[in-house]
Amino acid sequence: MGDGLQSAGHHMDAYAASVDDILEEEEHYADQLKEYLSYAEAVRAVCRKHELSQFELEMASQDLISKKQQREELATGIVRTFSLKGMTNKLFGQEAPEQRDAKLNLLEELIAEGEETVKEKTAECDEHAEKAWADIVRFKDQKDKDLQEALINYALMQISMCKKKVLNNLFQCWKK
After folding, report:
1. Spatial distance between the Cα atoms of 75 and 30, rounded to a whole number of angstroms
2. Domain count, the chain
3. CB count in 10 Å sphere of residue 18
4. pLDDT digits 0-9 by tens, 41-86
5. How many Å apart are CA 168 and CA 176, to the nearest integer?
6. Is residue 98 domain-resident?
7. Is residue 153 included in any domain, yes or no?
8. 67 burial class (0-12, 13-18, 19+ CB within 10 angstroms)?
9. I need a labelling partner for 172 at 20 to 30 A (CA). Which of 27, 39, 85, 163 fits?
């Protein structure tokens, strides 16, 4: 009975050592796969930055449209929407021509600045989208290669571990 227990203990030690080797190998492959979790976070950050630049572009465009509408309303004297300015004009009369011209000049300057801002934001958004797309394509190609390599190596590691187990079992059988 003592020999049987001792033999079983040797087998358990052999299995425990092989399990540790397998876990170390698998941890290496898991680390490689965890890198792509970081990759996904980087892609998410790029998308958030693109959304932010797109939002800034839309806000600048809306501001420009609003200023152009104000200029048109000031130039024609016709207010299309209900506003406090329209009500004060109806109650107290129109502004003096000098005030109106000053406001028109100010609006023209603000419109010019707004158009420049929209052009800058559009160029910035387009540039960011081009760079992001190039990076995403490059990362995707690299990811495909790396994942294929990692999975092939993992499969080869599993095959070699199984071969080692089979050989160990055969040697154990031959020793008996």
Report:
1. 68
2. 1
3. 14
4. 888 898 899 899 999 999 999 999 999 988 888 777 766 666 666 6
5. 13
6. yes
7. no
8. buried
9. 27
User: What predicted TM-score, i.e. pTM, was given to this entire model?
Assistant: 0.61
Q: What is the DSSP letter of 96?
A: P
What confidence category does residue 15 fall into, taking pLDDT thresholds of 50, 70 and 90? low
**Residue 22: which residues within 8 A CB-CB, separation 6 or more?**
161
Tell me which DSSP letter residue 80 carries. Answer: -
Of 26, 76, 55, the residue nearest 124 (C-alpha): 55
Q: How far apart are the first and last CA of the chain?
A: 15
Q: What's the CA gap between 150 and 35, in Å, rounded? A: 12
Q: Token match 């203990």: residue?
A: 9
Full DSSP string of 111-162: HHHHHHHHHHHHHHHHHHHHHHHHHHHHHHHHHHHHHHHHHHHHHHHHHHHH
Rounded-to-integer distance, Cα 67 and Cα 104, Å: 10
Contacting residues for 1 by C-beta, under 8 A, at least 6 apart: none
Whether 158 is in a domain gets the answer no
- Is the residue at 56 inside a domain? yes
Domain range for residue 52? 40-142
pLDDT on residue 94:
65
